[in-house]
Amino acid sequence: MNLKKIPKKLLLKGGKIFDPTLDKLKKADILIEKNKIAAIGQKIKDNNASIIDCNGLVITHGFCDVHVHFREPGQEDKETLATGSLAALAGGFTRVCAMPNTSPPLDSPEAINFIVDKSTESPIFIHPIGAVTKDQKGKDLTEIQGMIKEGAVAISDDGLPISDAQVMRLALEYTSMFDIPVINHAEDECLRNNGVMNEGDNSIRLGLKGNPSLSESIMIQRDLELANLVNTKIHVPHVSTSKAISNIKRMKKINPKISAEVTPHHLYFNDQVLSGYNTNFKVAPPIRSENDRKALIKGIKDGTIDCVATDHAPHTIEEKEASFDMAPFGMIGLESCFGVINKILDLPINLIIKLITKNPRRIMGFNNNLFEIGSHIELTIVDPNLEWVFNENNIYSKSKNSPFIGETLKGKVLYTLSKGYLADLNTKN
User: Which value, in Å, is the radius of gyration of the alpha carbons in the chain?
Assistant: First the structure.
């Protein structure tokens, strides 16, 4: 990646501009001056402008990921805000929402302020998500209002489910005053029973403890019923099962404030890939059956699932080299996201882009008008048809725990423009 300041004048020439807010695709030039959109039109000329040839490329909003783990503070050996930002740029992301399961967790206004303050100089926008409960122990609510005032865009104990239904109800009732979503890691811990992969024939064959699909769907149904009771926003993370899809689809008809995400890895893989005991496939919730995978794709196509989020979860090589039972859950996913979903979903490029631009921005209440004249630059430029092999050279995260290494993907981010920076990824891999 060649990361540099955006020139004072930059002309994006001959690309197809897709505005996900208007659902319009048109061929035009974009003139950028002082990090703002100065003009959009046909055959723009400016002899003083640097030029990027965008013929055959699509120019769109900067991608937005509502679910990442950047590990800072406390676990900087896995990821920092700085390295996470580079990983995001490589994947075309200009905005990310960082989960609170750091060490210590983001469970106070001071902790939220730390992230906001430290990310000021980052080349991307990093929005912290505050913890629901103190020290993420699932008992006492945090200073939610104080965290929101400092910049928290949602609350979650992600990584740990909120098992107490009354605590979840109180969190939903409290956040209803601020119009932000509650995000609960939907796994019933009793049913999960320390399972490390999807429960089924393959878990029995591999001798690994299974995590039943019911552990997810039953928790999601509880949370959706509570959200409906108090009439407030709820966002369901990393949906992995057909049963959960059915529950969400049914409850969305009652409560329009429900939203849901799915990860690239749950769309791409089924539980047969665990046969090699590769710990990079160990995630929570686990990679499920082929029927579940197909249900997730159908859930995207019928609108049950609103967006794709990576659940980018870095871990050190040493941690992932442990036995499958002992290795931590999680994989990185920012750098590979676009190529994965563009390949596996078999959808028009406009629909793919909405899943990682308009829809996640809507969920988090971010501005969508990125093609207005005078708007600060947040743009991503992709080649939607380029087939390429994902390898370690494409990883800018501090960690390398990706199961996509060696996979042939379709569609590649070539440039990301964000906060006055231009990330040039236009290399042949």
Answer: 21
pLDDT value at residue 205: 97
CB burial of 336-347 (b: ≥16 within 10 Å; e: otherwise) equals bbbbbbbbbbeb
d(CA 46, CA 30): 11
Determine whether 192 is exposed, middle or buried from the number of CB atoms within 10 Å of its CB (0-12, 13-18, 19+).
buried
Q: Output the pLDDT for position 282.
A: 98
pLDDT score for 19? 96
pLDDT above 70 for 153: yes
Residue-wise pLDDT for 266-322, tens only, equals 999 999 999 999 999 999 999 999 999 999 999 999 999 999 999 999 999 999 999
Lookup: tokens for 17: 């501009």
- Using a 10 angstrom Cβ sphere, with 0-12 exposed, 13-18 middle and 19 or more buried, the burial of residue 303 is exposed
Strand pairing partners for 126? 96
pLDDT at 429 > cutoff 60: no
pTM of the predicted model, to two decimals?
0.97
* CB of 344 closer than 8 Å to CB of 296: no
Maximal CA-CA distance, the chain? 67
Task: Give helix 214-230 / helix 165-175 axis angle, nearest 10°.
Answer: 40
Strand ranges, E, within 298-425? 307-308, 378-389, 408-418, 421-424
The crossing angle, in degrees rounded to 10, of helices 214-230 and 242-252 is 10
User: Which domains does the chain possess?
Assistant: 2-59+371-424 (2.30.40.10), 63-364 (3.20.20.140)
**Tokens 């209803």 map to which residue?**
176
The torsion angles phi and psi of 289, rounded to 5 degrees, stand at -75, 170
The predicted structure's pLDDT at residue 368 = 76
Please list the active-site residues. 311
Residue 359: which residues within 8 A CB-CB, separation 6 or more?
A: 306, 307
Distance between CA atoms of 220 and 182, rounded to whole angstroms?
12
DSSP one-letter string for 356-367: TTHHHHHHHT--
The answer to whether 353 and 411 are in contact (CB under 8 A) is no
CA 197 to CA 397: how far, in whole Å? 25
What does the block give as tokens for 131?
């913890």
Q: What does the pLDDT average to over 170-182?
A: 96
pLDDT band at 427 (very low <50, low <70, confident <90, very high): low
Instruction: Report yes or no: 9 and 32 within 8 Å, Cβ to Cβ.
Output: yes
CB-CB neighbours of 39 under 10 Å = 14
With 60 as the cut, is the pLDDT of residue 428 above it?
no
